[in-house]
Amino acid sequence: MSLKRVGVLGGGQLAAMMASAAEALGSSLVVQTPSFEKPAVAKADDVVIGAVDDAEVTAQLARRCDVITFENEFINLEGLMPLAKQGVCFRPSLENLAPLLDKYRQRCYLQELGLPVPRFTALEAGGEGKKLSSLAKEASWDFPVVVKARRHGYDGQGTLIFKDQQALSKTWEDLGCPAMLLEEFVPFERELAVIAARGATGEIAVYPVVETQQEDQVCHRVIAPAAISESVNSQIEAIAHTFLSQLQAVGVFGIELFLTPAGEVLVNEIAPRTHNSGHYTLDACETSQFEQQLRAVTGLPLGSPTLHCDGAVMVNLLGYEYAQHDYAAKREKLAQIPKAHLHWYGKTEPRPGRKLGHVTVLWEGQHSGAEAIADQISSLWYD
Ligand code: ADP
Predict the structure, then answer these.
(1) Tell me, what's the pLDDT at 166?
(2) Long-range own/partner contacts, residues 56-64 (CB < 8 A, 24 or more apart)
(3) 157 alpha carbon to ligand 1 midpoint, in Å?
(4) Which CATH number fits the domain 119-184, given the four candidates 2.60.40.10, 3.30.1490.20, 1.10.3720.10, 1.20.58.100?
(5) CATH label, 5-90, candidates 3.40.50.300, 3.30.565.10, 1.10.10.10, 3.40.50.20
(6) Which CATH architecture does the domain made up of 190-382 adopt?
(7) What is the DSSP secondary structure assignment for residue 43, as one 8-state letter?
(8) What pTM did the predictor assign?
(9) What long-range pairs does 22-25 form, CB within 8 A, spacing at least 24?
(10) Residue closest by Cα to atom 20 of ligand 1
(11) 106 Cα to the center of ligand 1, angstroms
């Protein structure tokens, strides 16, 4: 049976892009979001206003939906448990989400599944400085090390890189010695990502592996497909299959990876939702990640994840100033690039670093022009 009315916890651009895919599938979308100004409000069929982690508001949402899914990790698992017990259908399920929302716990879970991850340990809350200094040493890692907030980090917020013990101790103490994830700095050759989906009957669809390019820990560009060897590609597909079949989750997942200079693949993080590295699928694949999420959670068969062109480059349009205008002239120029697809999220408060939209340019033939296209977009946007 297909569940037609889908609730989404969150009203950002990911929910908005899901809403655009809903009509063609005969689904309707209701979003739970804190304000009428969020990108998904104009696109959704209905809106429930309230904080995303307010479970009482989710109870109202549940009355209007057949199934509830997610667009971010600001999930109040404990608050939602009673609703699940009353029979509210969450996809992915709360059990699926439990090992994934806390970055340290997620690392432990991935390691238990036998998946390759960077070396890591927990910084316990309130641990004294001495213990902190011995942690990295015991693990015999060299500095730099990476420290991450265990929950609610996104776009690199909550991820800090330390070049020495002194800098690490000082910042951690200034933060009040919270519980955090401590891990080795991976001198990656490239960052890769893959979107993978599992349907209600257990079928799995894995999208092409892409290269992601971050600046200041924020994704700027995605190149699809990544220029990688067949062996790296198969390792990543195997990681996606192992993860989804072990977790038995229903929904779309974004898997972020490091490729080391020695050709080793490590899983950095898995997001239990659609992901920025999969935005190119809207214009370049037979089924977008947003349609796939709807197909999975409503119980429809999954669509094909195959590229319908030779490749694509996606560039995020990040805010670079506090602006009142809507960048109309720049958007027009970007839209004139051949085979460009411009997506504008309609956010009301552009500010530096905020994701305001993205452009995807498709290509046929050689891969070598991808960087040049991305450079062209960046110079039109940031000049
Ligand atoms: P978020 O969940 O906020 O996106 P991530 O853990 O993905 O945070 O980190 C953001 C970026 O920081 C990564 O894409 C990568 O460029 C860099 N980074 C994160 N962890 C490491 C690491 N262990 N070694 C090297 N770089 C890292």
Answers:
(1) 86
(2) 57/32, 58/7, 58/9, 58/32, 58/83, 59/83, 61/7, 61/9, 61/30, 61/32, 62/7, 62/88, 64/5, 64/7, 64/30
(3) 10
(4) 3.30.1490.20
(5) 3.40.50.20
(6) 2-Layer Sandwich (3.30)
(7) T
(8) 0.95
(9) 22/294, 24/291, 25/291, 25/294, 25/295, 25/298, 25/300
(10) 146
(11) 14
% of the chain surpassing 90 pLDDT: 77
Nearest atom, ligand 1, residue 214 CA: 16
Ligand 1 atom 16, closest CA: 217
Q: How far is the CA of 195 from the centre of ligand 1 (A)?
A: 17
Give Cα separations from 327 to 70, 167, 336, 353 (angstroms). Answer: 30, 40, 15, 15
pLDDT tens by residue, 284-322: 999 999 999 999 999 999 999 999 999 999 999 999 888
Question: Ligand 1: which residue has its CA nearest to atom 17?
Answer: 217
Q: pLDDT-derived band of residue 230, with 50, 70 and 90 as boundaries?
A: very high
Ligand 1 atom 12, closest CA = 217
- Please report, as a single letter, which amino acid is at residue 216: D
Does residue 105 register a pLDDT over 80? Answer: yes
pLDDT tens for 312-352 read 999 999 998 887 777 889 999 999 999 999 999 998 877 88
Pull the structure tokens for residue 157. Answer: 């917020």
| Contact indicator for 141, 119 with CB cutoff of 8 Å | yes
Higher pLDDT, 186 or 368: 186
Most informative mutation of 73, 143, 146 for ligand 1 (most atoms within 8 A of CB): 146
Q: pLDDT tens digits for 234-291?
A: 999 999 999 999 999 999 999 999 999 999 999 999 999 999 999 999 999 999 999 9
Ligand 1 cavity residues, CB under 6 Å: 118, 146, 148, 153-159, 183, 185-186, 191, 214, 217, 256, 268-269
Domain layout of the chain by residue ranges: 5-90, 119-184, 190-382
| Atom of ligand 1 minimally distant from the CA of 118 | 23
